[in-house]
Specification:
This protein is mainly β. The protein has a single domain, classed as Jelly Rolls. Helices cover 10% and strands 47% of the residues. It contains three helices and 22 strands. An eight-stranded antiparallel β-sheet has the order 1-19-16-21-14-13-12-22, with no helix packed on it. Strands 2-3-10-5-8-11 form a six-stranded antiparallel β-sheet, with no helix packed on it. It is globular, with a radius of gyration of 21 Å. The N and C termini lie far apart (72 Å).
């Protein structure tokens, strides 16, 4: 009996001396330099990180336009983050500059073309629609779901939020009620500054680092540097925050993927500036 107690004691002592593996923050740097003679680059980013969400980076150069098709049972979002070009959707041209969002909505295809002597980089994001999503879409305003949604980030509505400082400029680049359970926005400030620790177990979240972004992202005990043109996944339910040092820039897109439509109540913490 005494030997069993000693073994148990040693086992507990040994196991307590092993540090718990820190939770990692998944991050992937985007490729913004095409190899010589390469005119198109496509790569899946953070594969299988969020159920029902697929993200691809696409980079284009050269004179030829590409035909990009949407997928049945999915909604598609295009985030253009570097380079200039043009999108033709339903025989209408949309000028693409860095930091533009476009949703084809009910269109089955669009064409994308890079500006002369430039390279266009963007994310294509598919969201798989659930049976409830299909029902909810019928209740959304028709102009939200039938028309092409196209916005330059700088033209989007600004808001404030308690977890951010008064120096922060935040904008909603994709309000909810366009695609079920999805909203997106930007956060922009100069250091020293921060986004305070907060939790939201009702949604999955991706961050896309925009031009000059140079911040540290924290989630529980983990931390990671997030440079420009990188995509990061906030671990679900973690207490997370962001800091930016003196003379550095915080500028990223947040993408909220809610587990259900009730979770969208989180967006009530965003207050339109003109309402204040």
């Amino acid at each position: 009996m005494k030997n069993k107690i000693n073994i148990l004691f040693l086992t507990l002592l040994f196991s307590s001396s092993i540090p718990l593996m820190a939770q990692e923050i998944p991050i992937e740097n985007l490729n913004t330099k095409l190899q010589e003679h390469t005119q198109q680059y496509t790569k899946t980013i953070l594969e299988d990180e969020i159920k029902g969400i697929h993200v691809e980076q696409i980079s284009l150069t050269g004179k030829n336009a590409i035909l990009d098709k949407t997928s049945e049972g999915y909604k598609t979002i295009y985030l253009f983050f570097k380079g200039n070009g043009n999108v033709n959707a339903a025989k209408k041209d949309y000028t693409i500059v860095p930091e533009t969002i476009l949703l084809p909505n009910n269109l089955k295809e669009i064409t994308v073309q890079t500006a002369e002597n430039d390279t266009l980089h963007y994310l294509k994001i598919w969201s798989k629609l659930t049976e409830q999503d299909l029902l909810d879409l019928k209740e959304f305003p028709k102009e939200n779901t039938q028309n092409v949604y196209y916005k330059k980030f700088t033209d989007c509505e600004a808001y404030t939020e308690p977890i951010k400082s008064p120096n922060t400029v935040s904008r909603t680049i994709l309000p909810n009620k366009y695609i079920p359970r999805i909203a997106m926005g930007t956060v922009q400030t100069k250091g020293p500054d921060k986004v305070d620790p907060h939790e939201h177990g009702m949604l999955e979240q991706l961050f896309l680092g925009l031009a000059d972004n140079d911040v540290i992202v924290y989630a529980d005990e983990a931390s990671v540097a997030m440079p420009e043109f990188s995509l990061l996944h906030i671990p679900l339910g973690s207490s997370h925050s962001v800091t930016v040092d003196d003379n550095k820039v915080m500028y990223y897109v947040w993408m909220d993927f809610f587990l259900d439509k009730k979770g969208e109540e989180w967006l009530n913490t965003h207050k339109k500036i003109e309402d204040e």
